Amino acid sequence: MTYEHTQALVARKVDFGESSRIVTLITPERGITPGMAKGSRRKGSPLTALFDTYNLLDITLIWKDSRNVQTITDAALLKSYGVVKRDIIRSAAAAVLLETALCASVEGCPNSELFTQSKAGLEQLDSPDAEPLPSLCLALFQVLETSGVSASSGTLAELPVTKNYSVRQRALIEEGLRCLEDQQKPQEKEIVYLLHYLHDFTQHHFEKKLRSVVFLNSLL
């Protein structure tokens, strides 16, 4: 048993028992880390808001290799990303970003770059001056690149599903991917097709469906 201190992004939360929550954290040192937030559902508890989804925390864990869920002993809020939470499009985009990061992470394995890119993506989405969907495209591209499966312009022909894309769709996706390769945000006409492709690319490589994409698509 050891005490570990780290920053963490709250990617997901589920109720546990009568007064606690299990939160899925993205951390630089341990990758995906399920943590037990005891008492966080008690009435009037300050922990309720602390373990809200998307929050950036400074936490201390009791780490036991024999446990699937680690115990959180201390936590402090570093940033709550209020702009994201007050805007439904930004909130839906953040959900897609963090779900993609979860797909690209391995539980218990360190990936400081993936954590850094996920946090940077949330920072962009939290900027009132930044358009959320172009910011999401760039953040997803960078998260995938960090995970070792870069969605570069040369990958378009690799996915079987792209055979169903029209010539115009493929051209717009190629243009958008070239923008992302240059660390530039895509143009508005490319965004919907580009998001669709990045979703298909993620599903193909990680063999996981992104539920958050369905909700985001319903808003567009």
Please describe what this structure looks like.
- By secondary structure, the chain is of the alpha+beta class.
- The chain has two domains: about 1-80, OB fold (Dihydrolipoamide Acetyltransferase, E2P), CATH 2.40.50; about 80-220, Up-down Bundle (de novo design (two linked rop proteins)).
- Helices cover about 45% and strands about 20% of the residues.
- It contains eight helices and five strands.
- The chain has a five-stranded mixed β-barrel with strand order 1-2-3-5-4.
- A hairpin with a 6-residue loop joins strand 4 (about 55-65) and strand 5.
- Helix 3 packs parallel to helix 5, helix 3 packs antiparallel against helix 8 (about 210-220) and helix 5 runs parallel beside helix 7.
- About 40% of the residues are buried.
Structural key phrases:
single chain; 220 residues; alpha+beta; OB fold (Dihydrolipoamide Acetyltransferase, E2P); de novo design (two linked rop proteins); five-stranded mixed beta barrel; 8 helices; 5 strands; 22% strand
Give a short overview.
This protein is an alpha+beta fold and 220 residues long. The protein has helices spanning 47-50, 82-86, 88-104, 112-125, 132-146, 167-181, 188-206, 211-219, and strands at 2-16, 20-27, 31-37, 56-63, 70-79.
